[in-house]
Predict the 3D structure of the following.
Amino acid sequence: MVWWQWPLLAAFSELEHRIWTRHGGVSPAPYDSLNLSYTVGDASAHVRQNRTLVRQAMGLAELISVGQVHGSNTLILMDRQTIREAGEVRGIDILITNLPGIGLLIKQADCQAVALYDPEQRVIANIHCGWRGNVQNVIGQAVGRLQEAFGSRPAALYAGISPSLGPCCAEFKNFQQEMPPEFWQYQVRPTYFDLWQISVDQLLAAGLPREHIQLAGLCSRCQAEDFFSYRRERVTGRNGTVVALGE
């Protein structure tokens, strides 16, 4: 099993996080091998075993994921009852908890996972953010939920943006219909967009200091050896980014 980390977040000893690559699982091609999604065509038994491997490797009591739909609905896990009810609830793209030992899993194959940590209130969030999420400013909404539910100060938050579709590969031929005009300035060449910079700017607009934001800077479509990519392969698995508070 192979994973990446953000050095910015790894500096907090009470925070556990890993950006899992596609290596070290049990799924066969085209989901080889650490596929973490039940909804892509892989056998459920393979996914369960892969998730068990991740949970055990991180020493977690629970690993929570939901049915992501490119929206902005939030699931806040504050007690054991909400954990029992979480399952694979559909329609959620923001996960938040202040409970230790609970891994928040975002599945991805070109989309971003944006992890947030508030060291003052000891609360974490994990956000599923594709281009549709950027259009809805799901990142800013997640910061707002942390403020409302836990009193988090945006200036105290730290953020990591996972490997995802880079400006080298993020082509949107119909961008004039898909993206608002304020996004058009993020074209790096005709029809190619820097989604990474959009997310950084949305974090800044939400009140995070620039020095509290770390971008992985790895394109999932280019890094075929390490990451699943829907744009590259279509039928493929899903990587996972997991964030948790230590026990």
User: Anything to note?
Assistant: The two ends are 23 Å apart (CA to CA). The helical segments are 7-10, 44-58, 80-86, 131-136, 138-150, 175-178, 195-205, 230-233. The chain has eight helices and 13 strands. The mean pLDDT is 96.
